[in-house]
Amino acid sequence: MxxxxxAEAGLRSNRRNGVIxxxxxxxxxxxxxxxxxxxxxxxxEPLADGALQRIVVVGGGAAGLELVTRLGDRLxxxxxxxxxxxxxxRTHLWKPLLHEVAAGSIDPGEYEVNYLAQAHWHGFGYRxxxxxxxxxxxxxxxxxxxxxxxxxxITPPRSVGYDTLVIAIGSITNDFGTQGVTEHAVPLETPAxxxxxxRRLVNACIRAQTQDGPVRPGQLHVAIVGAGATGxxxxxxxxxxxxxxxxxxxxRIDPERDIRIVLIEAADRILPGLxxxxxxxxxxxxxxxxxxxHTGAKVTEVTADGLRLxxxxxxxxxxxxxxxxxxxxxxxxxxxxxxVNRVNQLVVEPTLQTTRDPDIFAIGxxxxxxxxxxxxxxPPRAQAAHQEAAHMVGQIERRLRGDSSLPYSYxxxxxxxxxxxxxxxxxxxxxxxxxxxxxxxxxxVMYRSLRTLHERALHGTPRALLGLLVRxxxxxxxxPVKLH
Length: 484
Description:
Layout: E1 14-16, E2 19-21, H1 23-28, H2 37-40, E3 53-58, H3 62-76, E4 81-87, E5 91-92, H4 98-103, E6 113-114, H5 115-122, E7 125-128, E8 131-135, E9 140-143, E10 146-147, E11 153-155, E12 158-161, E13 164-167, E14 172-173, H6 181-184, E15 186-187, H7 191-210, E16 221-225, H8 229-246, H9 255-258, E17 260-265, H10 276-289, E18 292-295, E19 299-302, E20 306-309, E21 314-316, E22 319-322, E23 326-327, E24 346-347, E25 353-354, E26 357-362, E27 367-368, H11 382-401, E28 414-418, E29 424-429, E30 435-439, H12 441-459, H13 461-477
Parallel strand pairs: 3-4, 3-13, 4-7, 13-26, 15-22, 16-17, 16-22, 17-18, 24-27
Antiparallel strand pairs: 1-2, 5-6, 8-9, 9-12, 10-11, 14-23, 19-20, 20-21, 25-26, 28-29, 29-30
């Protein structure tokens, strides 16, 4: 079964006055007695349902959700195009917040966006399901069946037809084939995984409080593999929240004696992708907190009791988070014969079109987009996803008009690393590409503004500001950490 009817089996595309039509639309369209009538149609004039261009975006992360929200507002509401989001989750949470969910610093329910509601409010459709393949000749993507917790089918296997397809399914953790990661480490790819780690952390503290014997070596140790921004920020948040949890009556636990946080990085310094001055400042703050940092340390095995390093040493820890490296999901490795790189990213042109199909685009972490004058592609950062989503809005509007696509140019505005209440450190890019170092209150305000910009793109300025106010008031009345 398909979302667009049985005629989807033989889809092909053609252009008429800048609009891509399906075969049945071509056959059913009478000859126009006024050949220039299409040219006289205003760009914002609504089209009949059968003539609507089908724009399908797969993935409701930062890039995908911002894109469909803007396209829905500009095109879907005005019936200039059919805009569809395909997503396997029910709600969206901005990925840079996952480390705070894992530490228990925030309640994810306060920040989640419901896809069904967002689609209703902003003029796009929502298809619940996971994409498992594409048929480029028929111009359809295939979705797997969805099941509930009891194994009952929610939605059947189905297909969704497209005229323009945008892949924005983000990235997953790259464990580099390390033994024991799947069984014993928790990745931070989804809100569910972050919440799972938080439950394990709180349960470990309660277990240590109520057990008969003393705290075992490694029982309340947290090992974080990967000292990029996520790993460093998580280490600082866990340092604070474990002490908050213990402060709620868990008097048999001595944080200084029993709780140990270890940050492990294979590179020669933490935050290897950021300027060295930022790395050094963050390292000083972590040292001041008593967080143990190992650099130049490669993990070769993760066990139930800890992890082993390449030099043969063993770090005892019953709680392990894997935050080292990212790659695109495996579904893209054999995705309709499209070109991918060694980490499964779809290779795209500067226009964000895939190299082997101009009707398929890729944005966000799953795209390998070239940078002019740089040997590496656009980095997988939130600011790149935001920029690419904004660029794609213009690209799709140009396609509707029959105009050629324009190249995307990444602009690096700098990077910020927030270590909870301890400090925020980063660099901002000024004029002529020169960066300057920032730290403290101003850096913290800039960091929080990034989340506000994302919420503004989804909800508009009034609702984004109202959300800030409501959450500020709630935090004054509840506990500072999630205890359940």
